[in-house]
Amino acid sequence: MAKVTNIVFGGLGGQGVLTASDILADAVARAGFDVKKSELHGMSQRGGSVSSDVRYGPTVLSPMVPVGEADYLVVLEATQVEPNQPVLRPDGILIPPDVIPPDGLKNKKSFNVAMLGALSAFLDIPEATWLDAIHARLAAKLHRLNDEAFALGRKSARARFNLS
Description:
This protein has a single domain, classed as Pyruvate-ferredoxin Oxidoreductase, domain 3, CATH 3.40.920.10. By secondary structure, it is of the alpha/beta class.
């Protein structure tokens, strides 16, 4: 069986963790992969810990990323790095919130899409596929803002992690 890619998002309620994982799941499905997704809500809808697992590949049997097997950990809030760190495999990639320059976003609500842009720099999914998934999930009036946030995240990750 070919490799399954394991991605975990971590953050706080209200940051768009679940929206980001929904967009990722849509993008990988549009790219032709089997995808499974699960989520864990914290003690409150706004402000509590939230995480979401996305697994994709030719065939995915379970939605949960086993502890120590995440290929990528995307964290939207710095306080959530440590609690989510155990899911990351030893050679996995942590994408922390500071990968996005604090003054780079026109609207802080698009931070989750910027973090998707950062993740996209590592995945072999066409940029157009990502944008289609973003546009399918978010209101048309937000497309330009989120396209810019996605591009910022992609550029920032490439610079930070020395990706081509």
